[in-house]
Design brief:
- Among the domains are: 112 residues, Ribonuclease H-like superfamily/Ribonuclease H (Nucleotidyltransferase, domain 5); 96 residues, no CATH class.
- It has a five-stranded mixed sheet with strand order 5-4-3-6-7. A two-stranded antiparallel sheet has the order 1-2.
- It is α/β, with parallel strands linked by helices.
- Helix 3 packs across helix 16, helix 5 packs across helix 16 and helix 10 packs antiparallel against helix 11.
């Protein structure tokens, strides 16, 4: 009996040891499964991040690249009209220029009578013309050649004392060997058309027969920048006084280091600045410690840190974030939140477009938008504790700054998106992709000034070449600079 008990105890000890070993093995397996699950989740998150582009995130379109997935267009509905002119469309054609604009008139007469074959006179004075004249105009570029002015400074002897005096060149001529119109054209080709310096050099030699060195081209661009200093300074001083400003920034390169190109869009002008950082210090430098107007932007932290007053967040960025959550949703919470938010966004913008179409006034817009604002606020509040991290972060941000989503409803001049600033930067982004950035601090200033004037002229529908040329002419003559502010 004693031996039997000892044997049973020994077996129990072995079973307990085996049980403990198996429990430890199961615990290790569970931990390993948990770690692998986290790793899979991280990899899925990274993969989703790589799949995101400008259509489902806040990434700029320039980051998509040629390898980006093709954007899917919605299926064409049956009965939708075909491309091109529709039945009944009167069409558009090039209008004839007025007679005073025509440089040459060529009279065309028929050689023979179409009916009997009799020869007809070939002079208008001799022909018996009947009815109106069929006018047909051909626009051609005349042979272009540079206009060269040679100043001959004579030495004149005085009849009184017999001494000689050499005439001095006019002050505006002594500055450069190239005229102000050519200088303005070179600056416009550089910033307005994004032609590289060597391209400008080849264009002038090929088209105008002007031989100019690469260094001279750069000096003329820098001279144009100096001529625009007072013009751009006036715009910079106007920034804090604007009632509404749209702001955005993009990456830039200078001397091989990272820089940021800022664009601030006012009511009638665009101001650019190249800065070493993307922080709120740039906004403090440009707008002061407190901006009294309405600042429109995306939800970047620098704007939140700087501006505590009235603001408008970009709904285009918000919509792309919601589409990204919906496209890569892994939870029911994410799908429900994004679908409901997108539905409210669509309803809100239908109201906005009807208001823009003068279907009703702003008071009616405010009245009809209040229920949608309340639903959007309640939707964000419901998902503050969501288990989905992306939903929780976005819902918390929108809940905290919900008042910054609807400024465009109440305040005239405020748009629901930040498209004006993004469009202003688009030209600079394309220019950046074809250049090596700046090579000095002076080059950063040149870039900012030329972009400011060129894009403002486009915004105001002014001739940029004429403005740049007149600015250079005034600068050489010591006259006050031109203004781009609309008084």
């Amino acid at each position: 009996m004693r031996r039997t008990n000892e044997r049973l105890n020994l077996q129990n000890e072995r079973l307990q040891e085996e049980n403990e070993r198996l429990r430890q093995k199961v615990a290790d397996r569970e931990k390993k499964v948990e770690d692998l699950g986290k790793k899979i989740e991280d990899l899925e998150s990274q993969l989703a991040g790589r799949k995101k582009d400008s259509t489902n995130s806040s990434k700029p379109p320039s980051s998509d690249g040629p390898a980006a997935a093709r954007r899917l267009k919605p299926a064409r509905c049956r009965g939708r009209r075909k491309p091109g002119g529709q039945p009944g469309h009167c069409g558009r054609h090039r209008e004839l220029q007025p007679p005073e604009r025509v440089d040459q008139i060529v009279a065309v007469l028929p050689a023979n009578c179409r009916h009997c074959g009799h020869s007809l006179p070939q002079q208008v004075e001799q022909a018996n013309t009947v009815g109106g004249v069929h006018r047909y105009q051909v626009t051609e570029l005349p042979p272009v050649q540079a206009h060269i002015t040679e100043y001959q400074c004579h030495k004149v002897a005085c009849s009184q004392c017999g001494q000689t005096t050499r005439a001095e060149l006019p002050a505006e001529v002594q500055v450069s060997l190239f005229g102000h119109r050519l200088t303005g054209l070179i600056a416009y080709l550089t910033v307005g058309l994004r032609v590289p310096r060597r391209g400008v050099e080849q264009l002038l030699e090929t088209v105008l027969g002007i031989e100019i060195s690469l260094g001279s081209t750069q000096k003329l661009v820098e001279e144009t920048s100096e001529a625009l200093a007072a013009t751009c300074q006036e715009l910079e001083q106007q920034l804090p006084q604007e009632p509404v400003l749209n702001s955005d920034e993009t990456g830039w390169r200078s001397m091989g280091e990272r820089r940021w190109l800022w664009a601030l869009v006012g009511g009638s002008f665009v101001f650019f600045a190249v800065a070493a950082s993307r922080s709120s210090k740039v906004l403090i430098h440009l707008l002061g410690t407190v901006f009294p107007g309405i600042l429109c932007s995306d939800r970047f932290g620098a704007y939140l840190k700087y501006h505590k007053g009235r603001a408008q967040f970009c709904w285009a960025h918000l919509k792309r974030d919601l589409l990204g959550i919906l496209e890569f949703a892994r939870t029911t919470d994410a799908e429900r939140f994004s679908r409901n938010a997108l539905a409210l966004t669509a309803r809100l913008f239908r109201l906005w477009h009807r208001f823009r179409g003068a279907v009703f006034d702003r008071a009616e817009l405010i009245k009809r938008s209040i229920p949608l604002q309340m639903r959007f606020f309640a939707l964000c509040e419901q998902h503050l504790d969501s288990k989905d991290k992306e939903v929780r972060v976005l819902a918390s941000a929108l809940f905290q700054h919900c008042d910054r989503l609807f400024a465009f409803i109440e305040h005239p001049g405020v748009e629901p998106t930040n498209n004006s600033a993004e469009r202003a930067l688009r030209h600079a982004v394309i220019w950046r992709k074809g250049s090596f950035g700046n090579q000095s601090r002076k080059g950063e200033v040149v870039t900012a000034r030329l972009l400011t004037v060129a894009r403002t002229c486009v915004m105001q529908r002014r001739n940029a070449v004429d403005f740049l040329s007149d600015s250079v002419r005034r600068h050489r003559a010591g006259q006050p600079a031109l203004s781009l502010l609309k008084r």
